[in-house]
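Researcher: Good morning. I'm working through a list of sequences from a screen, and I'd like to move beyond sequence-only analysis. For each chain I'm collecting a predicted structure so we can compare shapes side by side. This is the next one on the list. No need for commentary yet; just the structure.
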Amino acid sequence: MNLIKQAYSLGDEQKRRAKQIYKKALYRTAQSFGNWSANNAHTQLSVEFGELWVLYVEGGKFDSEAVRRANNAFNYANLELGSDGKIFNTAKEVVSEADFAAAQFFWLKRSAREFDAILTNA
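Model: Good morning. Structure tokens for this chain:
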């Protein structure tokens, strides 16, 4: 199954939770700018998302299946809220005006095309 079809195969509740977690992860990514463990915004956001997904959806259980489910959920949420420039509207929704202005100047505008990427499931 291709990764886009796989992402959209989530159930309604998983889709809702994926979007909710994506927004929280984006907020955390914006708040931690300058202290990222990853070298770009998309990767940092996926790290934040994965941690939150494992904590809230997987009940803290971390294994290869949980990672696959987190990647799939991230792909869905990113396609809905991040790709094709949608990251700007999502960021406006979840961060303060001052943080959005800083993010747009420092990393969001420069990194917008990164959000068109899809995570592969290892």
